[in-house]
Design a protein that fits this description.
Strand 1, helix 1 and strand 2 form a beta-alpha-beta unit. The chain has helices spanning 17-28, 77-88, 114-124, 143-158, 231-236; strands at 5-9, 32-38, 57-59, 69-73, 95-102, 129-134, 166-171, 183-184, 192-193, 196-200, 206-210, 213-214, 241-245. A nine-stranded mixed beta sheet has the order 3-4-2-1-5-6-7-13-8, sandwiched between helices. By secondary structure, the chain is α/β, with parallel strands linked by helices.
Length: 262
Amino acid sequence: MNPLRILISNDDGVFAEGIRHLAAVAVKRGHEVTVVCPDQERSATGHGLTLQAPIRAERADELFAEGVTAWGCSGTPADCIKLALYELLKKKPDLILSGINHGPNLGTDVFCSGTVAAALEGTLEGIPSLAVSIACFKSRDFRLAGEMAMDIAEKSLKTQWPKSLLLNLNVPPCKQSEMGPLRWSRLSIRHYEEQFSRRIDPRGHTYFWLAGEAVKDLDSAGDGPREWPSDVAQISNNSPSLTPIQPDLFWRGDISHLPKLN
């Protein structure tokens, strides 16, 4: 295919291995690649924007493969996309990629994910966008996820990428020979146990550390074709999960179930 103008961001920061691998895969395929990402880790910031402080950006080309133009930004992932589109880029990108995230972005966790927020900001601007994550915090093998993300993005752009469609890809941390087939999946409804850990600091004051663990629920999922697995179930089967998401959060239940106004 013809070279694409690709904008890449993340929430793990400019020094993260995942984003360097993704940018390297994209530029190796002949695409024009620009990275604009946080200058430090901004995980779980959701779609937050910086409104009470200035946003600074510094060039960071030396951290990436030859041919990649890169910026480290003091803002959130969503800030990075906005700044890139309205200040740093000369032309609108054909594609926005976010990742490769160090850890899963499954189910309703997408609401707090900075990785997904960066891609969502692109979707809101009418640009085809894809978020990609390795579904394990310890794995550092990003090669397959990078190639898979680019394959999906290139193929989708050649065929059909509907307006307002955000693609969320999660790749299991296993060898390709052990991996099941890629499938469309539904978003799981994620629940957590022991959300906070209460601790005492050296001066005797109480503080709290957010430390909940997700309950493993393979069946709970929201809207979508019933024959599609949940994204959590797909990853549990060592198979890549691709979930279509859209910004529209309007209630899709039965209108008769809404609270009465009178």
